[in-house]
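Lecture notes, part 5. Sequence design as translation. It can be helpful to think of inverse folding as translation between two languages: the language of shapes and the language of residues. The source text, in structure tokens, appears below.
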């Protein structure tokens, strides 16, 4: 599923990049990029462009248009059986004609009747990606519904987006499913591009298994978030890390206390899975800290460390070099980060 990482960049010429001093954000120059992407709409073809009961011609149409994604969708996402089996058509029809699924499909298609703005955002992100990783291919993009089972799926050269997971709780579906508030707050359209790009980067650059202490997890997730800084420079930081504005304020105001808590309790080098989950895992708050504290404080701190580290770098756009540097302690020390 994961392709080999290409050789690190040499020093890149200044002509490739523009640093925007006015915005304070680094801007990758995509002026001459010819990269463009489209998003194939599986949910529209499955629920609107085929017969109510799928026949052999419908299946052939879907298989020919969607290729490997059809297989992934049928076998992995909705679990209808092997793509080649004749019985799979029965189970696919059962899914397609389930009343709740039909209602969700109709709501999703209506809510995302126009995805041009998403396509433009993705196109700009992939243009930057192509400048920073010129030897890496751009994934084929698909949208789908899974009846609230999958948000983002990544498989080799495929990036799929479950649009029914970004309906902003319309018609109260997320409430009825018992999805907690901290998750519902980010199940909105403005999170789609950030979630998708972050998921892609996470599979392209997996965490090294050489050292799995808390600091290593912090730095790894900091790298992913820093990549979003370059690939999505106009996206708010709160969207990138899935915090509310209040949670962002809390982390900025309490980062010193959080940092000293890590230091005083020798947490940076712990390999205790429970401690790592406490500070890195998604949660409505950080256990042991006051109400209002967000979850994942280790990711936020790791992000700030990596930002400072790249500030010290000769080439702050060198994401290949960043991901190839596996020494989390080195990154921490060279960052000179102080909250």
């Amino acid at each position: 599923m994961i392709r080999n990482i290409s050789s690190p960049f040499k020093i890149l010429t200044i002509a490739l990049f523009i640093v925007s001093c006015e915005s304070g954000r680094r801007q990758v120059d995509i002026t001459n990029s010819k990269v463009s992407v489209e998003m194939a709409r599986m949910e529209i073809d499955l629920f609107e462009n085929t017969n109510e009961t799928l026949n052999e011609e419908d299946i052939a149409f879907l298989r020919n248009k969607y290729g490997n994604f059809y297989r992934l969708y049928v076998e992995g996402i909705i679990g209808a059986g092997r793509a080649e089996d004749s019985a799979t058509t029965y189970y696919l029809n059962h899914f397609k004609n389930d009343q709740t699924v039909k209602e969700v499909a109709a709501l999703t298609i209506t809510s995302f009747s126009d995805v041009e703005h998403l396509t433009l955002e993705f196109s700009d992100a992939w243009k930057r990606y192509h400048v920073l990783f010129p030897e890496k291919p751009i994934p084929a993009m698909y949208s789908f519904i899974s009846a609230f089972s999958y948000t983002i799926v990544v498989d080799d050269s495929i990036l799929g987006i479950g649009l029914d997971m970004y309906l902003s709780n319309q018609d109260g579906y997320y409430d009825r499913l018992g999805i907690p508030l901290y998750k519902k707050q980010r199940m909105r359209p403005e999170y789609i591009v950030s979630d998708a790009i972050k998921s892609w980067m996470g599979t392209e650059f997996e965490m090294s298994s050489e050292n799995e202490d808390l600091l290593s997890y912090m730095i790894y997730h900091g790298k992913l978030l820093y990549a979003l800084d370059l690939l999505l420079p106009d996206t708010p930081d709160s969207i990138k890390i899935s915090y509310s504005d209040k949670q962002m304020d809390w982390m900025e105001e309490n980062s010193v206390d959080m940092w000293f808590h890590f230091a005083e309790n020798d947490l940076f080098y712990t390999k205790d899975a429970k401690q790592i989950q406490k500070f890195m895992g998604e949660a409505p708050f950080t256990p042991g800290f006051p109400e209002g504290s967000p979850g994942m404080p280790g990711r936020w701190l790791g992000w700030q460390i990596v930002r400072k580290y790249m500030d010290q770098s000769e080439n702050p756009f060198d994401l290949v070099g960043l991901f190839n540097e596996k020494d989390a302690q080195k990154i921490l020390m060279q960052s000179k980060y102080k909250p």
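The translated text above is only one of many valid answers, since several sequences can fold into similar shapes. DSSP finds 16 helices and six strands in the chain.
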